[in-house]
């Protein structure tokens, strides 16, 4: 099993960051490369449209509003992995005006090496967290 973890500090309170990105169906609100999300099954499944027209279907596996965290699996996507499970969490820091967001995933690569799959998701997480941070730029 391969893994990828990326974190970033954002100049905002943990609660304000979570308010923007904590909903399972809110990716289009902060992630430019996901312009559309359609919620199904009472909000437990989201069908995402990527900026290049691709489709990704994900299932909410766990949600903890108090801990500002949720986990999801990929049901269908154009990625060379199976058994994908990812968690995104917003943490308060010692500075109440700075939050740390961590996006982590584990998955089994298919027809690619662990390092290739890890690099793919590390890039997705890094670009996604930078886009999230850009929402809080001065």
Kindly describe this structure:
The mean pLDDT is 96. The radius of gyration is 15 Å and the shape is globular. By secondary structure, it is of the alpha+beta class. It is built from 3 helices and 7 strands; from the N terminus they run E-H-H-E-E-E-E-E-E-H. The chain has a domain of 94 residues: Alpha-D-Glucose-1,6-Bisphosphate, Chain A, domain 4.
Structure described in brief:
The protein has 138 residues and is of the alpha+beta class. The protein is 24% helix and 43% strand.
What attributes characterize this protein structure?
seven-stranded antiparallel beta sheet; START-like_dom_sf; alpha+beta; 7 strands; Polyketide_cyclase/dehydratase; Polyketide cyclase/dehydrase; 138 residues; Alpha-D-Glucose-1,6-Bisphosphate, Chain A, domain 4
Main structural class = alpha+beta
Helix content: 10-25%
Based on CA inertia axes, which overall geometry fits? globular
- CATH hierarchy, class of the domain at 2-24 and 64-134: Alpha Beta
H/E element string? EHHEEEEEEH
Shape-level CATH architecture of the domain at 2-24 and 64-134? 2-Layer Sandwich
> Averaging pLDDT over every residue, what do you get?
96
Q: In the CATH hierarchy, what is the superfamily of the domain at 2-24 and 64-134?
A: START domain
Let me know the number of strands: 7
Beta-strand fraction estimate: 35-45%
CATH topology of the domain at 2-24 and 64-134: Alpha-D-Glucose-1,6-Bisphosphate, Chain A, domain 4
Distance between the termini: 39 Å
- Main sheet attributes: strand count, strand direction, barrel closure: 7 strands, antiparallel
**How much is the radius of gyration in Å?**
15 Å
Strand order of the largest sheet: 1-7-6-5-4-3-2
The unreliable regions are none
Number of helical segments? 3
Protein name: Polyketide cyclase/dehydrase
InterPro entries: Polyketide_cyclase/dehydratase (IPR019587), START-like_dom_sf (IPR023393)
Pfam families: Polyketide_cyc2
